[in-house]
Amino acid sequence: MAFGTQDDTDEVMNEINMIPLVDVMLVLLVIFIITVPVMKHSVNIDLPRATSEARSSKPEALRLSVDAEGRYFLNETAIADGELAPRLKAAALQNPQPELHIRGDKSVRYERVAQAMAAAQQAGLRKIGFITEPARP
Predict the structure, then answer these.
(1) Which of 30, 34, 50, 116 is most buried, by the most CB atoms less than 10 A from its CB?
(2) Are residues 74 and 87 in contact, defined by beta-carbon separation less than 8 angstroms?
(3) What pTM, to 2 d.p., does this model score?
(4) pLDDT band at 14, cuts 50/70/90?
């Protein structure tokens, strides 16, 4: 009972296995067949020209602060409640329209900040943001 003879194991393979090479070549061929038509088909369009100069008339942001007592400050100047809406309307009419940055004291009632936001919305200001301080670790 011989499981294997010495002659079977001593044979030297003198041919190159071409199957892996053919597999790689077929994969590359498929990739090229798919990508070449995509690269060649393009639509010719005449794009408009634009300058890369920065806008010279960038509007200054309005800073609306609400202190702990609920008083309003527009650009660090104290204003009465009745003056807030007309000033915001005047700012909304500017071209380009300035951004409104709202800073509310953490101990002020939310109602005062909400009234300021409602006045800004009624005035027509479109860009409203809140300013906060980063939390301390």
Answers:
(1) 116
(2) yes
(3) 0.56
(4) confident
